[in-house]
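anyone else get weird line breaks when pasting these?? whatever heres mine. first is seq + tokens for prot A
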Amino acid sequence: MKKVATIAGSDATGGGGLEADLKTFQEFGTFGLAAITSIVTLEPETGAHHLRTLSLELIQEQIASVFAGPIDSIKTGLLPTQEIIDLVSEVIPKDIPLVVDPVIGGKGTQDFIKNEQVQALREKLLPHALITTPNLREAGILSELGELTSEKQMEQAAKKIASFGVKHVVIKGGTRLAAKQTLDLHYDGRNFTRYPHPIIDTPYNHGAGCTFAAAITAAIAKNYPLDQAIKLAIDFVQAAITMGEKINPYVGHVWHGAYTHGEKRLEYSDEQ
């Protein structure tokens, strides 16, 4: 069985973060391991999110535990301080495919990381990455091009992000593009590949970004060609969003089991 590692924040509500990663790894038939960088909690009374960061020593001990055996691919998620980014960049093996999900904030939250951390992502982590998967807002921040609202701007941002040393950039179009159809854009340093897909009209999409990057990470571990890994991840997330669930009064999450279990669930619902 392929072994896949995530170094990310924990989402106590279960939709994003390393919870999303581990659920996705499981759906892909891989064995997931995790090092927790931080914990994001939600106030039941207000819906406000709070971030607590773990100590560097504890993070380093977790990473050492994860890499005590062979690992086939690595994903990073929320790395909330410059020191954590520096640590992760230094200690993870450089010969294992690395997927960087450059988490800057979450849906309905303030930004988790600021300018210093963004600069550390550019200079320390992205040069080691096989692929990075920013959404439009993250791509605009990483590239310093600001708000991206068109395919042309996405292309410009992808080229700028690739200049930091990452081999492949996938920018997720999402609902910020003013169109009935959105697209994910892959840049391999020379060519662009477009993956258009319909916008799903639902508020239950928390965790979609983490799930997308985790799906690519698991597919890479299973030796999928990168273009196939990206397309499979898109299909996986589209299903997860389509069958998203309201989890509490403030957020609704994607359902990570939708791609593999969705039809069985629909059959069960019909029987009821």
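and prot B, same format (seq, then tokens)
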Amino acid sequence: MSKSIAIVGDRFMLPSVFAEHIRSACGDGVDIRTLEQPWPDEPMEHGYAGSKLDGLKEFMGQPDEIIGFIGDAELLVTHLAPISRSMLERLPKLKFIAVSRGGPVNIDMQAARDHNVLVVNTPGRNAGAVAEFTIGAILAETRLIRSGHEALRGGEWRGDLYRADRTGRELGEMTVGIVGYGAIGSRVVKLLKAFGCKILVADPYVQLSAQDRNDGVEHVALGELLGRADVVTLHARVTPETTRFIGREALARIKPGAFLINTARGPLLDYEALHDALASGHLGGAMLDTFAVEPVPADWPLLQLPNVTLTPHIAGASVRTVTVAAVQAAEEVRRFLAGEPPRNPC
């Protein structure tokens, strides 16, 4: 008897790609149905600003719609569809959920455990994409790429950016501090080595790899990193401990003229404090790809500052990210159907 698998994808995490890889991994003994949600052409819900669904974060879709689509399926592969406690109570046949994300923020994990539903995720799916984007963000700020572009688009030739007191610095002479040493942070370390810069890492929960230690990467406390780094780049998860942990006190400890990069999660920052640090010139600049509220309001004060670059949460968006996630999810489905333990249980 075929196992029924429901796939809820979108216009980034294409359900057809997941279906293809699941069929390749599992053969013909699966009955697959797919649903494509309209993200990113339409925004998702962001629980960081006050969830409308049992405290879930970053999800898309109404419960009744999702429940109706899943129906009697035993397995669900999803990117953004929410699964709350009340939804699980209406999905008694569901036994397995694969979330094609680094964290299952759209799933009520305690409810899943209570209902004996196995949840797996796809850690590191976009590590390469975000790490590369982070390097680009650092260069855009430190080498004045954004400043020069904006001026030229506005009809101004900024020859003064060649002046010794205004021009940028090379990464090879700078110290870069990486906050968070997971799949992305550790890859940023690897990419930065090619530039010859001094690299600091702050993460109290992990140790540096032997290779990074041998290459001179330093493992330091957050306060020391903030005081020494010319560039601070964030790669931490959102937890009660890290929510708004880059606030006034932390920003005051950052050395004057330094740059702040956030390609992780918006709630890590206190945005009012960040605005003040940028407006006062204490920070040389910032590059932000994620925000506590998305999309950002049109009148958001940070949009008015000349020393900040903003992008619409695209650091993890690459074609390869979709393939990596689909391959990982398909393998987890295969293992579940074969009675093998999961690789990435949540």
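btw re prot B: The radius of gyration is 22 Å. The first strand starts at residue 3 and ends at 9.
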